[in-house]
């Protein structure tokens, strides 16, 4: 890797010769591979050192010769110290060809970025409304959704439209119903003042921390790009700050090393908005680096801001890529701020037809009753069924007002769980329902356990042939007892209901398949 000369000069002056040489050496090494388990579908048994779930078998230790695959030995799963469900792998797996990956059992996430968990666990102890502002492809969003207190609502936003679709896909596979995905510019949130208890801003940056994983980041780096980034980052914070409640928490993070995008922006947030920096309890053996600003760079009045607790991850010290994080609290103002919304819970507005009348809904009472029968009665007790066009959705009732407010101001990509869609006279179960381990009542559907080959064919959206004993109608496919999605069995074949845009596009299998 040929690093830009100006990057070398700046970073050497920042770290010193010895530390820079260690960093440069680390950047020539292969990056570690890490995953984070979905604690809604899997759990880690520390005593038995195995991964499993009450609803699925533990990971097999022997290869399945039928598909030339082997499962990861338990000994190769090493914990990420700052993440409750994060694990390092000894090597990269063929994730694309692992049905459990597509079923949302785990997420492939860079280990350093899992440190966000520490802020949420140490400072968020009651249900909150949280915004992940720059969320695609969804690593931090799925992580936040796993560690937020139950009863919280997560809003995951992405400004680029096609990336917002990928974000919605990954959150749907993760399976938690208390999620809204939006596709908006940060400035659009100005219509929702004092709306969020927590805002995560993993802001676009110069990408220095991704150099060994992304050659394009090396090619595009320049001092001019760093200057563009730190100014854009400040605009993003200024745009979103009014939407944070007084006393709320802002998590500021980047995947870069330089202080212009990191410490200096944290200092700016403190000085511009009166934010209080929050310290985190961290393990000494995590080898996290603190504030890199030098005291002599400014007068003593700014020293307290410079010495704000911040957290750098350098790949020569921590097992992961470059990452930076700071947590800040918005000051309490004591002002009575008018609520950003006032709507009756569960109220819906029917679309008007061209003549001005209400468009008749294609969703009947019978369809709604069928949808209810598909849901776990106990888990869905606090949720509200609603209709929009031909679809039936379920969303937490306690956040109906918040969703109504967001619909007036933002572009909603998805909200809650899509239970089903009416086509003709039929109600077709939604893929999101199959992914929602809590809301799905599995007993409502016939279930067919499929082989690895059948699972891959299903994920390619190919035709599936079920066993002769499979009943006609909608059937839930499972792989290793984990739901993959629905098919409609018509006898000689089964119509594949996997989302077309999510299918595995590769038509071949690698010679060696490595899966969990």
Mean pLDDT: 89
Low-confidence stretches: 46-71, 295-306, 342-349
Give the CA-CA distance, first to last residue. Answer: 31 Å
Question: Quick one: overall form?
Answer: globular
Counting helices, strands and paired strands, the structural category is alpha+beta
Q: How many H/I helical runs?
A: 14
DSSP strand tally: 25
* Relative strand content: 15-25%
Proportion of residues in helical segments: 10-25%
Report on the biggest sheet: 9 strands, mixed
Radius of gyration: 24 Å
Structure summarized in a few sentences:
This protein is of the alpha+beta class.
List keywords for this structure.
four-stranded antiparallel β-sheet; alpha+beta; 516 residues
What does this molecule look like?
This protein is α+β, with helices and mostly antiparallel strands. Helices cover 25% and strands 23% of the residues. The chain has helices at 5-15, 17-26, 99-102, 116-123, 139-147, 161-174, 215-220, 223-240, 263-273, 303-306, 365-373, 400-409, 431-435, 452-459, and strands at 33-37, 43-45, 50-52, 69-71, 78-79, 86-89, 106-108, 129-132, 153-157, 179-182, 196-202, 244-254, 276-278, 311-313, 323-329, 383-388, 391-396, 412-415, 417-423, 426-429, 446-449, 473-479, 482-489, 494-496, 513-515. Strands 8, 9, 10, 11, 12, 13, 14, 15 and 18 form a 9-stranded mixed sheet that branches. It has a 4-stranded antiparallel sheet with strand order 5-6-1-7, with helices on one face. The chain has a 4-stranded antiparallel sheet with strand order 16-17-19-20. It starts with a helix and ends with a strand. Residues 46-71, 295-306 and 342-349 have low confidence and may be disordered.
